Amino acid sequence: MSPRIPQDPARLKALGIEELPLLADELRQRILAACLKNGGHLGASLGAVELAIALHRVFDSPAEPIIWDVGHQAYAHKLLTGRAAQFDTLRTTGGISGFLSRAESAHDVFGAGHSSTSISAALAMAWTRGQDPATRAQWSVAVIGDGGLTAGLALEALTQVSSLPTAPLLIVLNDNQMSISANVGGIASLLSQGRAGELFELLGCDYLGPVDGHDLSLLIGTLDGIRRTGATRPVVLHVMTQKGKGYAPAEEHPSGYHGISPVAQAKLETATQLPGPKQRSFSEAFGAALVGLAERDERVVAVTAAMSEGTGLSGFARKFPERLFDVGIAEPHAVTFGAGLAAAGMRPVVAIYSTFLQRGLDGIIHDVALQGLPVTFAIDRAGLVGADGPTHHGAFDLAYLGMIPGLTVYCPATEADLQLQLERSLRSTGPTAIRYPRGTAPQGGGGEAELRVHHEAKAPKLQLLALGSAESRVAAAYRGLPEGLREQVSFSTVLCAKPFPGLLLERLRAAPHVPVLWVEDGTVRGGAGQALLAEIQASHRAEFRILGYPDAFVPHGAMPDLERALGLSPGAIRAEAERLAQP
């Protein structure tokens, strides 16, 4: 019989070596059950089960910090550090996070949800421990995937590793030959050719490996040997793992099982269409539109950062493989590479999730906008993303893009809006951003690129304004108003957040005593609503109410739960509209 999952690493150390393979099986079953029920990052975590067991068996977490990169591979770590009883709540409202959180456990010594931070953090902790004789012998461990190693941040940390005196430092390279998509570039080539040791030795590290990451006895023996040796230089242990290990569908389709939802799981297992009409996601709609535009203009090229599938570019890659540039997990490079393409006369579209584009902010300002280059940023997952939580919500793009001179920011509400705005952006002489949410793209719209007027009251008691993706919820709120009041509310969708549509500004300035209710899927502080208020505040005399995200990091949870909690559900919007229209 499988042993019960230990409640903490100390109890793991008490298990017999012969019990550990059974423990690995049980961990996989728990990970699989939770991910098939709640969604989650299945593949990498299944592949890192033995690695998590071995690291917690040999090192003394949290005194000896084990810093997991991203969190995609850390589910077994969570189970082994006191969260087994709550693991079924993974990624659910009020449950445990799908990533690493310092607030959740002392063993999550460094929070993470973005890639490639672990080496920098572990290096800092190793240096700190080296300053105190009481902790000078303690190890610090960074676990990083081969995809994570392609990012500039990881390489920047490696350049400092040999020059900074530290307590013992171990870097575990978990090599499963993939990030979300198959890895690309020179680092991936070095790893695949068995030449990784050359790189790390040149950077001042001792290199061991590669070793089988699923052989528990070998892993534990190797790690124990490293720990006992008391290395004077940082050590890199190259571990080979299989993404999706132990679950045949994930082994056979590692890209499809990188991160799954229950619905996606059903599609992958049955390979059949779910009942009902199929609507495209915004990502799919973007990819299809870009293919059509690229067919008409050979200057159109696409750039992405290890996310061809996630950003909807798979079709573009098949149609125009020579015009798709996947730069790996290197968002700052993707931005500046796009700027270089534009400077050379091409029409680049840089497709990156909102939360990851934050890493390229300096390039957007310095390399693109300052030079007035016609780069289009296709910003996927703008707004809330549900169970992936605060590291992945696209909460800040409206705020950080809104401050940049010369940048047009489109906010489509429907598939047709997105198509029209993408076409316009590729005709523009300057930089453009198009931000759209995760999920299904509604139909309709598309006749306007900047402002869609749904209802114009003759003597309005309220101006009800939805920014882009908020349209469907605001429309539901509008329809729920009492009929007599509804006729006295002007309702429009704003499709361009920078610059604001001229017609919108004219209407607001012409009715300074009419209250405004503005709804956006982004942070209120520094967001589009505050920018609009700044434009009209000299003349506006009535209340201007902004509904958006608070000045706080929004937790993970189901989208309806989050929207209700934030006051962004149709019911909450309707109630606020009634309050403003009937003072």
In the CATH hierarchy, the third-tier topology of the largest domain is known as: Rossmann fold
CATH H level of the largest domain: which superfamily?
Answer: Thiamin diphosphate (ThDP)-binding fold, Pyr/PP domains
Known CATH architecture of the largest domain: 3-Layer(aba) Sandwich
Number of helices: 25
Can you tell me the number of structural domains?
3
The count of β-strands is: 17
CATH class of the largest domain: Alpha Beta
What spatial order of strands do you see in the largest sheet? Answer: 7-6-8-9-11-10-15
Unreliable stretches (pLDDT < 50, length at least 5) are: 263-276
Amount of beta strand: 15-25%
Structural class: alpha/beta
Mean pLDDT: 91
Helix content class: 25-40%
| Coarse morphology | globular
Radius of gyration: 26 Å
The biggest sheet, with number of strands, parallel, antiparallel or mixed sense and barrel status, is: 7 strands, mixed
What distinguishing features does this structure have?
583 residues, alpha/beta, Rossmann fold, 25 helices, globular
Secondary-structure topology with pairs:
Elements: H1 9-13, H2 20-38, H3 42-47, H4 49-58, E1 66-68, H5 75-83, H6 118-130, E2 140-145, H7 152-161, E3 169-175, H8 186-192, H9 196-202, E4 206-212, H10 216-229, E5 235-240, H11 248-252, H12 262-270, H13 282-296, E6 300-304, H14 314-319, E7 324-326, H15 331-343, E8 347-353, H16 354-357, H17 361-369, E9 376-380, H18 397-402, E10 408-410, H19 415-425, E11 432-435, E12 451-455, E13 462-467, H20 471-479, H21 483-486, E14 489-494, E15 496-498, H22 502-510, E16 516-523, H23 528-536, E17 544-549, H24 559-565, H25 570-581
Parallel strand pairs: 1-2, 2-3, 3-5, 4-5, 6-7, 6-8, 8-9, 9-11, 10-11, 13-14, 13-16, 16-17
Antiparallel strand pairs: 10-15, 12-14
Helix pairs in contact: 4-5, 4-10, 6-7, 13-19, 15-17, 20-25
